Amino acid sequence: MNPAQNTLKPLQGIRVIDFTHVLAGPACAYYLSLLGAEVIKVESPELGDSMRHRGGSDASRAAKGMSTAYLTQGGNKRSITVDLSEPEGFLVMKTLLESADVFVENHRPSTLESLGLSYRAVNQINPKVIHCAMTGYGRGGPKEDAPAYDINIQAACGVMTLTGEAESGPTRTGAPIIDYGTALAAGFAVSTALYQREKTQLGTFIDVSMLEVGLSLMSSTITDYLVTGKEPKQAGNAANSKSPGAGCFETKEGLLSLGVNEEHQFKALIKLLDDPAWYRDIRFRDKKSRIVNREAVSELLTRCLKQRTAKDWEQLMLIAGVPAAAVQTLPQCLAQEQVSERGFIHQYEGKDSAIAVPTLPFRMGGVFSHQPETSPPVKGEHTAELLAELKQHG
To answer: At a CB cut-off of 8 Å and minimum separation 6, what does 194 contact?
Structure first.
């Protein structure tokens, strides 16, 4: 591979105006910045991005407007404070939009209308701008202007009723998957729109629905329900494949996740477990029999797995071609060589101390990792600098 191919980042030369708050919108702009886009974060003079002051377990950082939740997707940006209620402030925003390739926002439609920043208004300011809007339910329908956070959409889309055990009741997933799923979906859409603009020389409006992101994350489950009419139920740690060899099982120490769905995988598994019962008992002789006798399969599996730890089994099974993973805590996962080898976590010097943050879950063109080059700005840190630039080029 020619190293020269990697000197130019994919989105270098693209200017993004980041008029977002909380998690989904800022994360989308952050992902675009990691791919080379210049991102200007527009904040109100009073509060700024509300996530600056909440989220995470470090109250002292939040009190300073630099919470860990904000730091996660705050890097690689310049921050300008703009009072959009004042004519001078709106003029600054208008000038920023005139210079922009992409306008990313996650405000309710009524809020945008009141600020004079609807797609119609933005398109009049700059017909080439790509306006990416992220809202709870998308444009159209009775809920298009409804406020929503990740927790509300997890409830609304049905994923909570699929999570946990039957006895636990609906359970929110431990991480804000809708927010970050929305950010990735929006980034995908923006990249596609930029490619389209190369052909049309015109911008477009991107309408991202958090509800539909949640539904997309359950795509195969939705199809199964629509085709069969069978409502999905909570299944705990059992796999969606419903294979008796897939799920979480106790070991001598720790839980082991197995994904044994194919016959060749099952044969590799029982060879490794080395218990004559797998060959002697007719209940285990073929896939159909094992499905009928899944409880017996689970009992024998657990008995065999109790002989070693989850980590030991994982190592042995991966060598044998059996899909397996020891259930880990987040600290255990981050400490793995696999994570460090890929460079997914990036550490750099922040305003007060070193900061470690996630980057992108993919690599392009052999680049080791897509890392932020500048630390998250304090609110309005680059206001004077950006105003001077706008005046110079205005």
So the answer is: 11, 14, 101, 102, 130
Domains of the chain: 3-217+341-393 (3.40.50.10540), 245-250+255-326 (3.30.1540.10)
pTM value?
A: 0.93
The DSSP line for 241-295 is: T--TEEEEEE-SSSEEEEEE-SHHHHHHHHHHHT-THHHH-GGGSSHHHHHHTHH
User: Does the pLDDT value for residue 1 go beyond 70?
Assistant: no
Tell me the mean pLDDT in the region 212-235.
95
Find the angle CA(26)-CA(27)-CA(30) to the nearest 5 degrees. 90
**Which has the closest alpha carbon to 382: 133, 82, 99?**
82
Beta strands across the sheet bearing 255-260: 245-250, 255-260, 324-326
Q: Tell me: the pLDDT tens digits for 253-288?
A: 999 999 999 999 999 999 999 999 999 999 999 999
Query: Residue 286 corresponds to which amino acid?
Result: D
CB 163 within 8 A of CB 10: no
Cα dihedral 57, 58, 62, 65 sign: negative
Q: Quick count: other Cβ atoms within 10 Å of Cβ 161?
A: 16
User: Is 18 a residue whose pLDDT tops 90?
Assistant: yes
How many Å apart are CA 139 and CA 121, to the nearest integer?
16
CA distance linking residue 340 with residue 335, whole number of Å: 8
At residue 259, the pLDDT reads 95
| Tokens (6 digits) for 376 | 């998250």
> Is residue 79 exposed (0-12), middle (13-18) or buried (19+ Cβ within 10 Å)?
buried
Q: How many CB atoms lie within 10 A of CB 333?
A: 11
Tokens at residue 38, please?
A: 């210049």
Q: Provide the residue count of the chain.
A: 394
* Residue 3 confidence class, pLDDT cut points 50, 70, 90: very low
